[in-house]
Structure formats: structure tokens, C-alpha cells
Amino acid sequence: MRIGDYTYVGAHTVIARSVTIGDHCVIGAHAFVNRDVAPYTVAAGTPCRPIGRVEARNGRFELVCEEQDAP
Q1: Which helix (H) or strand (E) holds 45?
Q2: Sequence spans of domains, the chain
């Protein structure tokens, strides 16, 4: 397991043994991470999946989330 620099991992998250989480990621609370997460990704859920991205703008970081389809 490798967790990149400047990455936030929410409370009660489980990360599988061989998973790599890239730099500048945000992982939501209670997630189960069973696959690699690319750098600058926002991910959440069980199993964990990308829901957005982290963008650097004018020296600040912003979380940009993708719109979810309504059930």
C-alpha cells in the first residue's frame, strides 16, 4: 500500500493491501479502496470509485465533483 503526498483519507476507510493512492487525492469517509486511485482524484463509496477531481487554480486547490445520475 502506498498513499501519496497531500492526500486526505476520510475516517473509517479501508484500503486493500496492494493499492496505490496518488498525490493530492481526497478519499471519502467509510470508503473501501480496492483499486489504485490516480493522482488529483476525489473518490468515495464502497467499493471506492472516482466522483471528481482536484484542480489547482491560482495557487489554490479546488474539488470539482462530477454530477451524479439520479436513480
Answers
A1: none
A2: 2-65
Q: How far apart are CA 27 and CA 57, in angstroms?
A: 20
Judge contact between 4 and 27, C-beta under 8 A. Answer: no
pLDDT tens-digit map of 51-62: 999 998 898 999
Q: Is the pTM of this model over 0.90?
A: no
Just give the CATH number of 2-65: 2.160.10.10
The answer for residues whose C-beta is within 8 angstroms of residue 10's C-beta and 6 or more apart is 27, 28, 29, 30, 31, 44
CB 9 within 8 A of CB 20: no
